[in-house]
Amino acid sequence: MLENREEELTTVRVQDPRVQNEGSWNSYVDYKIFLHTNSKAFTAKTSCVRRRYREFVWLRRQLQKNAGLVPVPELPGKSTFFVGSTDEFIEKRRQGLQQFLEKVVQNVVLLSDSRLHLFLQSQLSVPEIEACVQGQGPQTVTEAILHYAMSNCGWVQEEESRPALLPGGDLQGSCAGLGSPQGPSCLERFPYWSDFGMDEPHSDSPEEPAEPLGAGLEEQ
Fold it and tell me: 27 and 106 in contact (C-beta within 8 Å)?
């Protein structure tokens, strides 16, 4: 007797880049990450968060540390000299971040890392993710993901209606404003990484030089 097994599929999109704190010395670009899946590996089947580049840098380091000899996909480069407009650079980076996540979510070993799930399916900051994984936070990994999913139930319903795709890879619908008082919205800004050894206000990763947004978006 043949079993009728549903094929497991995971769709992840990086889109809607936005400049936060524009005009300020600590401005940066973050990106919306939308994930939809029927995979049993994920706690929530639909999620939407916003992350900035240095959080991707942190995630890749942790994945590599915990994956042993399993190679982790590369992030888009940090070229010091970029020929083109700011918009072109941001779009190139967006594409690179999406390709990174598409490869990561297809790797069984990387999917076993709780940090990846909290990165994709909660709006916890990096220090909060570490505390949660180490059992030092107020919630377990599953509880944190479910709490965020429940606080954004409106977004889940919106995405299930399959909104139209707009030019530039964005959706005719956004997770903006769909958070509730029960939890953080998709646009909640992240605290600085003080008490975590990564509190450089100008840079998104420790090895990157500090530079304002207008002078070098590759650092955001």
Answer: no
Q: Which DSSP state fits 173?
A: S
pLDDT in tens, 44-96: 999 999 999 999 999 999 999 999 889 999 999 775 555 557 888 999 999 99
Under DSSP, is residue 62 helix (H, G, I), strand (E, B) or coil? helix
Q: For residues 136 and 116, what is the distance between their CA atoms, to the nearest angstrom?
A: 18
Q: Give pTM, 2 decimals.
A: 0.70
Q: Are 190 and 52 in contact (CB under 8 A)?
A: yes
**CA 120/CA 116 separation, integer angstroms:** 6
What sign for the dihedral angle of Cα 169, 165, 59, 105?
Answer: negative
Question: How many separate helices (H) and strands (E) can be counted in the chain?
Answer: 7, 3
